[in-house]
Design goal:
Layout (H helix, E strand, L loop, with lengths): L2 E5 L4 H12 L4 E5 L5 H10 L7 E4 L2 E4 L1 H11 L11 H30 L7 H21 L13 H16 L7 H12 L1 H10 L15
Parallel strand pairs: 1-2
Antiparallel strand pairs: 1-3, 3-4
Helix pairs in contact: 1-3, 1-6, 1-8, 4-5, 4-6, 5-7
The structure holds glutathione.
Length: 219
């Protein structure tokens, strides 16, 4: 049975999993979520009550959480691009950076977007300030940490870059990096130029009018 990925092209975590599939040209069926495909939403909810996506089906295996999906693909559908280093010591900083991008870039970015989706009167101004402070702090750390590196963990494109690409793509929309973060900006440009992620951006382009804060006229 072929691989099936449930997700939506405009979803940041779906993009993260798609990057892994596109990097290695792994064949799969995309199970689009949305009102036109209620059967896909129903199956997602049946397999994962939290209803979060992406979700991968591989035969008997159901895998959710984008990082776990990428680990699963690396273990059972390996290709020429090794997103998880085989060397255990080299894999630690890759997994650490993956957690950093998810928790301290994607998380606060989603909190700001999520707040904009709330009805007037249920907004959390304090939470948004906290999210923006986290982003400022992590931007400064990343700007220093990534100096001299082509990709997040060094010369090779890895899981950490798959996490970074959608996180930094949207984070710079909701809370721009600022004029002096030249290393971080250059890294984001490299990510946007990576063919696997450039494809994700193009596939998501038709959905930009849905962005609650208004998508900027760039990228
Ligand atoms: N920790 C999850 C996060 C997944 C996530 O938050 N996905 C969003 C789309 S980008 C989602 O499912 N949103 C719908 C919802 O929360 O109900 C992962 O790594 O896959």
């Amino acid at each position: 049975m072929s691989l099936q990925l449930f997700g939506h092209p405009f979803s940041s975590y779906t993009m993260k999993a798609l990057i892994a599939l596109y990097e290695n040209g792994t064949p799969f069926e995309f199970r689009m979520l949305g009102p036109d495909h209620p059967e896909n939403g129903a199956e997602l909810a049946r397999r994962w009550p939290l209803g979060k996506f992406p979700l991968l089906i591989d035969g008997d295996a159901t895998v959710f959480e984008a990082s776990a999906i990428i680990e699963h693909l690396a273990a059972f559908h390996p290709g020429p691009v090794k997103l998880i280093p085989a060397d255990a010591k080299a894999a630690v900083p890759v997994r650490m950076l993956d957690r950093i991008f998810d928790n301290y870039v994607m998380g606060p970015m989603q909190a700001i977007v999520g707040d904009a989706l709330r009805p007037e009167g249920s907004r959390d101004a304090h939470g948004v300030v906290q999210a923006r402070t986290t982003l400022d702090t992590i931007y400064a750390w990343l700007d220093q940490t990534l100096a001299g590196r082509r990709w997040a963990a060094g010369d090779a494109f890895t899981l950490a870059d798959a996490a970074a690409a959608p996180a930094l793509f949207y984070a710079d929309w909701v809370h721009p990096f600022g004029a002096d973060r030249s290393t971080l900006k250059a890294y984001r440009v490299r990510l946007l130029g990576r063919p696997s992620f450039a494809r994700c951006i193009d596939e998501a382009r038709p959905y930009r009018p849905l962005f609650p804060l208004g998508a900027p006229d760039r990228d």
